[in-house]
Records
---
Amino acid sequence: MAAGVSDPSLRHRRREQGLMFLLASPALVVVLALVVVPVGWLMGQSVFDHGFTLENYRRIFVEPIYWRSFSLTFRFAFEVTVLALLLGYPVAYVATAVGRPWDILIMSLVILPFWTSVLVRAYAWLVLLQRTGVVNHLLADLGLIDEPLALVHNELGTVIATVHILLPFMVLPLYSAMQKIPRDLLQASASLGCGPWPTFVRVFLPLSLPGVLAGLTLVFVLALGFYITPELLGGGRTIMVSMVVSRNVELYDQWGAASAVGVILLACVLAIFVVVGRALPLDRVLGHR
Amino acid sequence: MADRRVHKGLPRGLAAAAAALMLALGAGAAAQAADQITFVSQGGAYQKAQTIAILDPAAKKLGITINQDSAPDSWPIMKSQVASGKPTWDVVDVPTSYCLRGGEQGLVEKLDFAKIPNGAAMPAAYRSPYSVAYEFYSSVLGYNAKKYPDAAKAPQSWADFWDVKKFPGRRALRNHPLATLEAALMADGVAPDKLYPLDVDRAFRKLAEIKPNITVWWTSGAQSAQLLNDGEVDMVMAWNGRITALIKDGAKVGYTFNQGILQSTSLCILKGAPNLSAAVRFVNEAVDPVLQANLPLHIDYGPANPKAFDTGVIPAARVPELPSAPENARRQALMSYEWWSSPAGEAAEKRWLEFMQK
């Protein structure tokens, strides 16, 4: 041990670690002040109401409104995630396959909407999807429909807009994972007599799985907490967990109940991270080598 | 409820910031003035209209300084201010239910109506021991005039709204029990003056009947107007000011005050208000018939003091557009905030979410 401490390279590394920690400390302070403290306070509020109580949690398990919202929210997040994968995978695949400059163009198209406010995009979808909207007009002009379709003010419109908003979170990890797949492997597979489809299924697809898992996790977790799209495009019927939280505060003035709902949703998200972390080291999900 | 105030003008946050700045600037000047109060409303075009119509003239007449603040939802702030023991607000203009709830919870002062003669002269239903009505708006039945070009053949009552055979078309209601339960009961044949206490079970049953035909349950006033304007729905329950704003912009929409639900905001004074006596004087002045009559000259809300209609200040052409004009008030139901802030009312509010999910 003593020899280890005097080892100059180890000392250098320690010093570097210390400096790195110092460098990260402002961010850590922010996280502590803006995440850890409020979340702790939130948890406290859910069990303290003039003394310790589990009433807020009991209510969630007893009253059907909470169960309905939780099951709707998970179903919604699942639908969004599956659709995002089905739409995002081909995009990422093509972007990695085409080479310059097309890949830059494709990825720009993926990222550009990312820079627009979620609220603006939700309203844009309202304009597109509503009864007198662009999509319905187009379909009617083409003679495909007689009556305008109910594309919005329901779960369908909510899913469409949410998929659009969350698509970059699927495409980016997929793209990053696919880029790391050595093309030589595909050539090797082909040279050994494997056709394009089996090569994809047996070589490319398994190697892209870390990206798939990362994308699925990001999109699913974000969709679980979505508020703006179901509120604006759900027609009042799609009551997600996030909306139950807000109603509890606005309508019923019940901070404790709202906190308890938030805590349970947070627990669900953490559980998902743990399960995914078992299947795959989290540092790979977060983009490390 | 606060949402009704979101107008096209300044964004809410900006308006609040501006109000806060005005407050900060005003505080310095007010330090020398003999009497001052802090008045709080909901910001936006609504508070601007009040400033011209009521606040400035009242300040001048009483010789006091009125500092303004605004909050889209004052209730949590009222609670925390009173809890702190040192409130900075004096008079608040809030949904009447807040004043009543505040009275029950010891957050607002009991009013001495001997010192508020203007309020004492108003109809008893327009005041409570803790509050006096300040302005009226109404939840009315609005419709697309392209779909129903003949006003006589347009839906004219909640029974019509519920009648999907006679009036086919797409409908929207507010995603909130307030006024919606009243409409359901009127659709079921309850007379507008016999609504309270609400038969909540019957109201929810009637709502369940129309639910499959409701395209959108709107959450913001802006949304209700947009739905009607874009032809997304053919009829809607909406606040009268939202519909008249559409009409002014040239939209082909109509509405009726028949069976509208007349709602109000009220003035009340925070418990332990720093300037209690000036606050009481202000409350009296704020419901003065002439100042009250000024309000509809600047915004589409009706005066709370019926005597405002006798002052001659409101142009004759404007009267039929105002929800509290005697001719219109007679055709509407007056919302009982007393019932809504009672345990039965709160229980009905809590049933809403469950109803929406089914």
Note: Chain B has two domains: 2-136+263-334, 138-261+337-357.
---
Amino acid sequence: MAKVVAVIASTHHPFYYRASRSVGDERPPFADEWVAKIERFRETLTRARPDVLVMVGSDHFHQLWLDNMPQFLVGKAPVYDANWYNEEREFGLPRFRLEGHEELSSHILRGGLDSGFDLAFSNELRIDHSVTCPIITLRPEADLPIVPIYTNIFAPPLPQPKRFVELGRQIRALVEFWPSDQRVAIIGTGHLSLELGGPRQFGPHGPDPEFDRKAVEWIASGDVEGCLAEVTLDSLHAPGNATHGFMDFMLMMGAAGDGVRADHVDSLDLFHTMEAYFTWYPEGAPA
Amino acid sequence: MSKYLVDKFLFTIDRDPDLVERYREDPDGTVAWWEETQANRILGCIDDERSTWLAFTDEERTALRDHDHVALFEMGAHPFLTLTLFIAMFERDHDEPLAYQKAYGEALAHLSLPYPDITT
């Protein structure tokens, strides 16, 4: 059976690419520290020697639209082109072309459908920065095949937080039952407290540092129960109007396992939003 | 009230570089053209198989013509769509980094939780 060699949860900050490459007067004062943290984070994936990446993210109204909106969608295609004009425009992100892994996509789709998740699928998916940001930070070579999984954290009505946790658990179980000798990393990105297009946006910190502190602790300690006891679709409005992206972190907590402490935990308090990085090694830390 | 149609306007303009410029320079003309020819297009369908029922309310049309992001927020337009498009149109008019984004937030400072519902 396949091995889950790493479970990784991260924020996806579209400004990292530009900040990390900027020089001279253009380089923000926090860039060096940010790059150092990302390089340590990247090493946690490199050490796990993955062959395939399952990548959980959320389309930001790029390909998925309100006339036909899936809640959970699995990409099943041989190739994924990536990034969009408005992401090049606003964030300076480069375009990518990533190889897919149709066999693992099929396995997750079939297994999900047979276990209570009526997953949507796409045979032609152009992916966005929720997936390419972690490629840039964790695997800039972009040389591994991927299975993209999109969740709806963006266009209400949304699925319940509990459903994200359950899907994370199921993805983990399905990968572990995949008859293959491949080494799989499951990587998902979301947000801590975040406000976009509202009065609390672009402040000196994230809109709710207290939520961020609690969220990092829930994730780092694998406290699924504590997190689910406090987080509801309604409660997530309070820390910031885009904080429903935290549910992708909850999905990754499900993938990592209840009560399982992360092997790597790091964060960076930036303007606008806090960055946070977590890695678990289900097979034990690699040498 | 058609939050969906307002969002559809923001979505279809934001993804097209020519339309971003056109909406910046000629908001009245762009909104009129869009409502007349685009509002009922089903994305992914041929023109002949369009919808027959979508139109802006006066309030929505005015907010879009006035580039009024505060009114759009107050009527429950999706804040990500509005923000992204407005940064594309107006950040260039500000020298200081993030000055436009901060002013955009300050213009909404009178709003408190719960924010207007964005459910479509």
Note: Chain A has nine helices and ten strands.
